[in-house]
């Protein structure tokens, strides 16, 4: 993938994530793009992905991974969220790198939910969501017209939605 395309992806993602976040993209075991935010791990293009990092775990498990990584892995602790992606037909990962205390600070109410409708991920205002449920190990949210598969777990949404009532495995807004 051309570096120009990676830079564009980094800029677009940068509009959605907190300003202190850094963005790393890796493919085939090496970082191919890094955009430093206020919390900079000083990753360089071509640097191998370190075992125990978010990028390594996301690449191995091929699923979204969110966790606190200890200082011993990359020299400084960080909180990260990794997403598996396909880059030029190869397995890759996009990692959002945040300060280690981000997990505690991030409990601000969500204004949008990101959901997959057909083959596209779309932001949907929480105000449009009628209800949320967990079914078959996936979380779904509904608007008047559509059904979306969410990137969030029902457990995470319980803490991040402004007003809701909870009934067994469904949130009713």
Characterise this structure.
By secondary structure, the protein is α+β, with helices and mostly antiparallel strands. The protein is 21% helix and 39% strand. Strands 7-6-10-9-8-12-11 form a seven-stranded antiparallel β-sheet, with no helix packed on it. A five-stranded antiparallel β-sheet has the order 2-1-5-4-3, sandwiched between helices. A hairpin with a 2-residue loop joins strand 11 and strand 12 (170-172). Mean pLDDT is 81; it is low at 165-173.
What structural class do you assign from the helix and strand content? alpha+beta
Please state the overall shape, judged from the principal axes of the Cα atoms.
globular
Q: Order of SSEs, N→C?
A: HEEHEHEEHEEEEEHEE
Total beta strands: 12
β content, as a range?
Answer: 35-45%
Number of helices: 5
Cα Rg: 17 Å
Helical content stands at 10-25%
Mean pLDDT: 81
Taking pLDDT < 50 over at least 5 consecutive residues as the criterion, the unreliable ranges are 165-173
State the distance separating the first and last CA atoms: 42 Å
For the largest sheet, list the strands in their spatial order. Answer: 7-6-10-9-8-12-11
Main beta-sheet strand count, sense and barrel state: 7 strands, antiparallel
